[in-house]
Amino acid sequence: MDKIPDNRAWWLVLPVFLLVAFSALIPLMTVVNYSVQDIFGPGQAYYVGTEWFKEVLTDERLQASLVRQFAFSGAVLLIQIPLGIGVALMMPKSGIKGSLCLILVAIPLLIPWNVVGTIWQIFARGDIGLFGWAINQAGIDYNYTGDTVDAWLTVLLMDVWHWTPLVALLCYSGLRAIPEAFYQAAEIDRASKWAVFRYIQLPRLKSVLIIAVLLRFMDSFMIYIEPFVLTGGGPGSSTTFLSQTLTTMAIGQFDLGRAAAFSLIYFLIVLLISWLFFTAITHADKEK
Amino acid sequence: MAEIQLKSLAHSYSANPSGPDDYAIRQLDHVWHKGGAYALLGPSGCGKSTMLNIISGLVQPSEGEVLFDGKRVNELSPRDRNIAQVFQFPVVYDSMTVFENLAFPLKNNKVPAAKIKTRVQEIAEVLEIEDKLHKKAKNLTADEKQKVSMGRGLVREDVSAILFDEPLTVIDPQLKWKLRRKLKQIHEQFDITMVYVTHDQLEASTFADRIAVMYDGQVVQFGTPTELFEVPNHTFVGYFIGSPGMNIMEVERCSGGVRFDSTEIRLEPWQLEILGAMESENVKIGIRPEFIELSPVSSDGTYAAEVRDVEDLGTYKIVTVKLGEQQMKVRQSEEFDAGVGSQVNLLFPGQWLMLYVDEFLVQEQQ
């Protein structure tokens, strides 16, 4: 077949270009636009350069919120990844029991975020919530609306309950993909359960774990609704994470310039950390 | 090292076997003696791999017992039976190096590090992969991976037995021959009981002292390569061993012998006596192409046949002849020069003419 060079073919890219522009570029550029201007009202906008960025980066309230956010995401990963692997390892391999387990494990994933927040808000109350009441009955003083540590633990527990199933399901699918021959060979080689996990299962879970870590990092770093419904960010600002700080700034105070600069920094942090993690992992793989 | 005994063993993969066709292994008794090199030979789907997996403990037999040195091991896992097995397709632990792969079974057995090192080195030298020891196992080629797989089976010194399940399938022919010799050497050096599953008779006879031929879930003959060739105990052995296989003809009884078409074949008196005592109508005779002789003159004991085809295989010729309505193969030396269509006189020496009733050989009682 003869190929006819004709640059008009580039026009065929136009629909995709428009679609991407409307879905991603134009909204993002609006934020960029806000972040470099100070707007007092319609027609009263002044170009301020990087001023908002400087202010945001030195804002102590935001810095505290960022530290809390890292602490939260770190705790989420440290708990949910090992726990998810553990749950996946204990789930039955097949049959009716396996299917039943899958459904039970998946249920929390199907519940809307604000419902999760509401469930835990009631469940953890000391007076009418089963969980809070039981803990208080056991002689432990527990009050998530008043005590910072209790509030933190409750938010973490809620997130673990809501999202560990995702890690577990990913790992379960990864485990099922390991051919039976490997287990047979390990059995013949007299490998202990730990050796099977360490040398056969874990290496073969690597790719699903990368996805699990990325998803859980991004999601937990952007968490908003659940703690907002559960604690409202309190007591004080002890469970106020980045997105809640941002929302307060953008909608509560209508401080659009500052909020836009903050949004961009927020976005870049997520992007940067995900990229660093992914590159480090794939790079380490190549070395060997 | 152990003597492995299978006692009225049978296995079916279905939960409620309703007839013999549901069995992968029909009831059998068999003994693998201590320190022997054995082959388990048979076509695909005859139950060889099932038998191997039952010995190693990966599969639980539905009936009968597996005994190691007289002790029942049915309930023991492969780990507790202390058995090594090499699979048909390579299984390497791809996150480890070749060294770590070979060291893995030893490490699991808590062998001291210094000992592991010398042992792994020794096995790597035998398999000629000592230059690959520090490579990641996942970057190896298919035959290197299979060598690593085999290495893991050979590296332990204290195993009850080593089982090989068609281990050379993925290896190219040149290397195949070499590795088979290696296995034989390892066997002579370490004197470990080895059972080698294969569907290739050449592979079986180069490796093993004794071969068990399996057919349709049964061991139909257990003997040396020579025995399998000279006295096939079952029509399947006759057909499967040898190239080409035995000439086997369905016959019916007649006075003084048996008959097919218009050809009457005389039998030995003891054969006639046994045949007379049996009722079955399923009677066959068999003779190997190597044992049919051609006589220059027609006489009382010869059968006139017509040459239909001559295949020259370089060092000998395979002649297809037609006797009555039956085609038969005859092996002849290169000097054979009769053309297609010419007449020859076949001679069936009595000692090589086998009589089969219900597929099994009729043997002279001693």
Folded structure, characterized:
The complex is a heterodimer of chains A (288) and B (366). Helix content of chain A is 72%, strand content 3%. With 288 residues, chain A is mostly helical. Chain A has a domain at 68-240: MetI-like (MetI-like fold). In chain A, strands 1-2 form a two-stranded antiparallel ribbon. The longest helix of chain A is centred in the last third of the chain and has 32 residues, at 256-287. Chain B is α+β, with helices and mostly antiparallel strands and 366 residues long. Chain B has 2 domains: 4-236, P-loop containing nucleotide triphosphate hydrolases (Rossmann fold); 247-361, Nucleic acid-binding proteins (OB fold (Dihydrolipoamide Acetyltransferase, E2P)). Chain B is built from 10 helices and 21 strands. In chain B, a hairpin with a 2-residue loop joins strand 9 and strand 10. In chain B, helix 3 (98-108) crosses helix 4. The longest helix of chain B has 18 residues, at 173-190.
Write the layout of secondary structure elements.
The complex is a heterodimer of chains A (288) and B (366).
Chain A (H helix, E strand, L loop, with lengths): L13 H22 L1 E5 L2 E4 L3 H8 L1 H31 L4 H12 L6 H11 L6 H8 L10 H29 L3 H9 L4 H29 L3 H6 L11 H11 L3 H32 L1
Antiparallel strand pairs in A: 1-2
Helix pairs in contact in A: 1-12, 2-12, 3-7, 3-9, 7-9, 9-12, 11-12
Chain B lengths: L3 E9 L10 E10 L4 E5 L6 H9 L6 E6 L2 E2 L5 H4 L2 E3 L11 H11 L4 H14 L15 H13 L7 E4 L7 H18 L3 E5 L2 H7 L2 E6 L2 E6 L1 H6 L4 H6 L6 E8 L2 E4 L2 E4 L2 H9 L5 E5 L5 E3 L6 E11 L4 E7 L2 E7 L10 E5 L6 E4 L2 E2 L5
Parallel strand pairs in B: 3-8, 3-9, 6-7, 7-8
Antiparallel strand pairs in B: 1-2, 1-4, 4-5, 9-10, 11-12, 11-14, 12-13, 14-20, 15-19, 16-17, 16-19, 17-18, 20-21
Helix pairs in contact in B: 3-4, 3-5
Q: What can be said about this structure in brief?
A:
By secondary structure, chain A is mostly helical. Helices cover 72% and strands 3% of the residues of chain A.
